[in-house]
Amino acid sequence: MSDPTRTTDPGRTTDPTRADRVRQVVVAVGAVLAVAGAAIGSGAAGGQPIAQAADGALSAEATVVAPGSPAFSIWSVIYVGLVLFAVVQALPGRAADPRMRAVGWWVLASMLLNAVWIGVVQAGWLWGSVVVIACLVVVLCVVLLRLLRLPSARVLDAVASEVTVGLYLGWVCVATLANVAAALTASEVGGLGLGATGWGTVLAVVAALIVVGVGVRAARRPMIALAVGLAACWGLAWIAVARSQGPLVDQTVALAAGVAAAVAVVGPTVAVLRARSTAS
Length: 280
Fold this sequence. Notes:
Layout: H1 18-41, H2 74-89, H3 98-122, H4 126-149, H5 155-186, H6 195-217, H7 222-244, H8 251-279
Helix pairs in contact: 1-2, 1-3, 2-5, 3-4, 4-5, 5-6, 5-7, 6-7, 6-8, 7-8
Organism: Isoptericola luteus
Protein name: Tryptophan-rich sensory protein
Transmembrane segments: 25-51, 71-91, 103-120, 126-145, 165-184, 196-216, 223-241, 253-273
């Protein structure tokens, strides 16, 4: 009689291997170290805050697309999600889970890249930080695509993987644009023909379009699509707030970012509802 745990169906579990056990341990330990390192490096546990690193290039007043300081509180939620993922993937019953096999190492890579990004920024290498955050976006997109190829998971697993990755990717999409703007400004590149207001408006629109695109692609996985939209909306909304007050007021960018924030959350929501109506 064949062993029912051995199957080629990607949605079912096979017997765990030694590689599975190694992955569980390394991802769990690596996640704790990466999150702890990121908290220390970002100034959350003492030391120089990111806003003060690189001569303040990433502060809320550095560029017209810099989110207000409260926006960065989303990292607390993302870090909790990443720790939850590390715990869930380490459970005995998840060793051979297809989902954890598919994304475990990639999620760990995203955490390590985040820690590296913080170190690079603290060293003042802004263009290096652009390269690192671009790599982080690519890794998170890989995780997203791998999750979409697998059947729906148990609720706990879905929250730990899909919600966490969705929030992570949505926020990083906005952070990447702000990071590029900070590097250009610090390099005194200038307005590149459009000026700060023009480019701020363009970047806000680009961010919204990217998020809507992700939402449409992930429409059949509501947890991912909605999490991406909510995180991006959060970041864009805080850009709007920051440009409406303080030392760097820009009403045009504030309006563009506010509209983009609404589009970022409404677009994926509509995509999810359409996907559900089509499926029914």
